[in-house]
Please model this.
Amino acid sequence: MKKLKKKLILVLNFAGLTVKQKIEKMTAIKTAHADNPTIVPNLLPTTTTVEDLITEVYGLFAEHDVVAGQLTTITSKINQKTDALVDIYVSKWATETQIAIAGDETLAKKLNYDIKGDVAPSGKLEDTAPSIIEISNNKHGWHDLKIINIDSQKKRLPKGALRIDIYGQTGGTEPTDLASLIANGGGYLGEATKGKFRHEFPSGNKGKTEFYIAVYISKKTKKPVSQSLVVGEIIT
Model:
């Protein structure tokens, strides 16, 4: 009795492979055909034709890697420049404009600024800020500050905030932000407790203006995240 050969059906499964894995598998098959030309003597297209196509693909892979590297670098630069611009708009322009327009909503909208209440809070610490709502100087020798969150309107710290640091500058030109306060000779005064802070003065400061800035410190980084508008009060 003649023994029948088992019926063989070839399949090629490229499902689930990356593009490079597909090309690697194709390269292995092409190489095997080239090394054993008598098995399929009239293979079409020829192994040479297929090899040329594979070489082109590998060339494109190399080009892709270069472009991808350039794209990563360019994307990083875009993000860095954008972050720098956001800092200018939020920390400088918005503060300067807030002072200049003196609460005029029409002017704020004319300059295309967002107004609190028109935009829902994001919930991110960097998108909110402390607000010094009151400075009491009815007792000689010190100021009592009250600080709340600008979004919640409550003394409770927002999520992600470790504490509120208070900075002050005695006399001189009114600062526009924390950097200018420090440049003008101001500095760290202490930490607010439950939305309150008392600052006592030397007797020689009477009649001068004390400028204050409240700053949220991040739990995660232990660094300043956002700051209040500058608020000033005469020392009596």
